[in-house]
Amino acid sequence: MADEKNIRLAYIDVARGIGITLVVLSHAEGLNPFILKWVHSFFIPLFFFISGVVISRKSLESSFIEYFKSNFKSIVIPYFFFGLITFIPWVLVFRYHETAPYVENEGIKQFIGLFYGIGRDWLRYNVPLWFLPCLFTTKIIFYWIFRLKKASLIAIFSVAAAICGHVLIKYLPFHLPWLIDVSMITVMFFSAGYLVRDKMPEFSGIKSLSTGLAFLAANIMLMSLNGARVDMNYGVSGNILIFYPAAFFGIFFTLYISMFIHDGNIIEKAFSRLGRESLVIFALNAVTFKLLTGAAIYILKLPSDFRDIYPVSIPVYVIITCIALFFVGKFLSKYLPWSVGGRK
């Protein structure tokens, strides 16, 4: 069966590439609030769904020690690698040039935050890194849910975990380390990806733009009805009765569009290659934006508000960042493979 090995349907890499492009877009300052709210409505659930699709059943059936070691190597080591290489220049140089007022001992808090693993104001020099601890914890939770074997029980316990996650986020006066509370929510998307993976090859030949656009329309309609802008890092989902269907419609939209453009053309190749480097792009895109902003202001002598003056700077930021980090990913894969999970 297909799930006896790591499933990597061709359009899944395309979907991941589209998703990581949306991640980069969401971190661009000056982005239209409506577009930002739309991206946030589904792009993080998309990554957890895809992770559930591609996870190997063999790894899930291995011992917990082996499973833990494998995910520690592929997620935790890259997390600390990217955390340290972005923390060190921040604490030595960049924090003194931020617009936010300087705070004594902030460097100590941020270093502790790397081990706390919740992102937010505990990892403000590279907030997007929160995704990696969350992914690791989600996969650990799913390992135990998977032991239930039956699809119906996996679904029921995943929903129950999500409900518990929402309750913890609402009532706990503190944030659980390594985003345990948020991971109880994201495991539902991970489980959904795992549960539908056997059916996905049946749809891999579908090229239905109209179906994809219908999913997009449903996603936008529900997203508009949700009062809050979703922020998975903070556990903000707004109305959960709207959040989940909106997220799934956004996921299905991305998958159908990925099937539609999967034809060996340049667009498919570009997104597919970005998808394979999504770890590096996720970990370094926000830092790259800061470097590009510094270059624009101090080298090109653009005004500090140039992003408001020149809206075209947003797509330029996204394109340059994706291309630059694609090559960074290739470099790390070749010369420091352990830093990106051991892949070459």
Short description:
With 344 residues, the protein is mostly helical. The protein has one domain (2-340).
What does this structure look like?
By secondary structure, the chain is mainly α. The chain has one domain. It has helices at about 10-25, 35-40, 45-55, 55-60, 65-90, 105-115, 130-145, 150-170, 180-195, 200-205, 210-225, 240-260, 265-275, 280-300, 305-310, 315-335. The longest helix is centred in the N-terminal third of the chain and has 29 residues, at about 65-90.
For this entry, give a set of tags.
disordered N terminus, 344 residues, mainly alpha
Q: In what range is the share of β-strand residues?
A: under 5%
**Main sheet makeup:** none
Q: What's the total count of β strands?
A: 0
Helix-residue proportion: 55-70%
The class by helix and strand makeup works out as: mainly alpha
Tally of distinct domains: 1
Mean pLDDT: 91
Shape: globular
Unreliable runs, pLDDT <50, ≥5 residues? 1-7
> How many helices?
16
Helix/strand order: HHHHHHHHHHHHHHHH
CA radius of gyration is 20 Å
Distance between the termini: 26 Å
Give the helix/strand layout:
Layout: H1 10-26, H2 33-40, H3 43-54, H4 57-60, H5 64-92, H6 106-116, H7 131-146, H8 151-171, H9 180-196, H10 200-203, H11 209-225, H12 240-261, H13 266-276, H14 278-298, H15 306-309, H16 313-335
